[in-house]
Specification:
- A five-stranded mixed barrel has the order 1-3-4-6-5.
- The chain is α+β, with helices and mostly antiparallel strands and 200 residues long.
- The N and C termini lie far apart (67 Å).
């Protein structure tokens, strides 16, 4: 029997491992849209003009008669505060393999930016921000883009629509207040969006 050199055996083992490893050479999520579908989504979801009458998440919650649900236009920033859900949402301000992002009230994002002083790692290193992350729950809306079946599109928003962290966007869609799963937390402002405008 022909004996293979050790380095060749090692190389073959690495190649077999790469083929078997989950996610290698595959889409980011089962059923993720291909390039043609992504182009169609961008055509339909990226708005050329800003929708009229945007309000912030905090303003929406503080309406005189309260807000329970309906068609809305929201303005805010993608992320911009410390992650209040580190265990359940480790990829904040996104969901990794789903067209969902977390929209932060501009006022809360500006206050956080002033405190961070331009440090890009501030959210991960500041004990004060981590301990007060829950203070911003009312300033956050969860925005999702669904497919034709009414389920979240299985691709992250950055790849699907080219949106970037800390971008200021205006979102159009239907919102509802979802009961919190944790006692003492405010209801979650959830938006199923049908369009998003990127402010320059």
């Amino acid at each position: 029997m022909l004996a293979l050199p050790a380095y060749l055996i090692y190389a073959l083992m690495l190649a077999l491992f790469a083929l078997a490893a989950p996610g290698c050479g595959t889409a980011s999520s089962p059923g993720a849209p291909d390039s043609a579908a992504i182009a169609e989504y961008r055509q339909s979801l990226l708005l050329a003009e800003e929708p009229a009458g945007p309000v912030t998440p905090v303003d929406l919650r503080e309406q005189e008669d309260g807000f329970t649900g309906g068609n809305i236009v929201l303005v805010g920033q993608i992320g911009g505060v410390a992650n209040p859900w580190k265990e359940s949402e480790p990829d904040f301000p996104w969901k990794a393999d789903e067209a969902t992002f977390f929209l932060v009230d501009p006022g809360a994002a500006a206050a956080y930016a002033d405190h961070a002083g331009g440090d890009p790692d501030h959210a991960e290193t500041c004990a004060f921000c981590a301990s007060h992350a829950d203070d911003n729950l009312q300033a956050i809306a969860v925005v999702t883009f669904n497919d034709a079946a009414g389920k979240p599109i299985p691709l992250g928003v950055a790849d699907l629509l080219g949106l970037r962290r800390d971008a200021v966007v205006v979102v159009r869609g239907e919102a509802q207040m979802l009961p919190s799963v944790k006692a003492g937390e405010p209801a979650t402002l959830a938006v199923v969006a049908d369009g998003v405008y990127l402010r320059e």
